[in-house]
Amino acid sequence: MTWTLIESATERDAELELYGKDGKFMIRANGLELMNGFSHESETALGAFAAEFAPSDGARFLVGGLGLGYTVAALLKALGDRGTVTVAELSSAVIAWFRRHVQASVLPRDPANLTIINADVAVILARSGPYDVIILDVDNGPEPLVTAANASLYERDGLRTLRSGLSDRGVALLWSGFESAGFAECAKDAGFVVRCEPFRRERADLDHYIYVLTKDEVVAAGRKTRIINHVVV
Length: 233
Fold this sequence. Notes:
Layout: E1 4-11, E2 14-21, E3 24-29, E4 32-36, H1 41-50, E5 59-64, H2 70-79, E6 83-89, H3 92-106, E7 114-118, H4 121-127, E8 131-136, H5 156-164, E9 166-176, H6 181-189, E10 193-199, E11 208-214, H7 217-230
Parallel strand pairs: 5-6, 5-8, 6-7, 8-9
Antiparallel strand pairs: 1-2, 2-3, 3-4, 9-11, 10-11
Helix pairs in contact: 1-2
C-alpha cells in the first residue's frame, strides 16, 4: 500500500502535506519527508530522556514543534505529573491534523499538564520562561528545512535567546538528522557547553543525533551518564 495524501496546507514559505498508510501518518515539507509513524524511535527516545532532566516537581518544559506528536507523547509518559509541558507549533494545519487524524493513536487523551499553542517557538522563548528543559524539533536539524524563518533559531542571536530562556541549570535539546560542526561552534559562541549524542540505527546512514546544550560544564558533566543511558545504541 502506498502513502495516500490526506490534506495539504501552506505555512509561510512551506508547502506541508499529511499522508496516511495502514493507520500511520507522514508529514512532508516542500516535498521532503519530515517524519513518519513507522520510524519514530529517535523521537520517542528524545522525549523519554528529556523527562529525566526535570529537576523537581513543577518543572517547566517547552517543546518547539509538534509534528506527529511522538516526542511529546514519550515526554509526558515519562514525566507523569512532575511538571508542565508547553508545545509551540508554528503551523495551525499541523495542530489540526494532529487533533483530527493522529492523536487517537499517539496520545489518546489530553493530559492536564499539556498545552499546545499555535506560535513560533522563538516568540515564546522571548516572552516567557525560564524553562528547565527546551526541546527544539522544528526541522531536520540545525538548518531551516520547513521555513526559511527558522534559520534565526540556529544563529548566534537566536541561540542567545534560547540560552536566556533556560533556568540556571536548564538544558536545551536539539534533534538532528546529521552532525553540524558549524552549529556546534555557533552554540559555543552563544555561551553554551555543547555535546552531540548519537542515536544509532541499524545502518549508519540512518543515525540521528541529539545536541545537548547547557549553560556550564558542571551541569553538562553531572548529566552525561543519564543522557547516554537513554540513547539507544
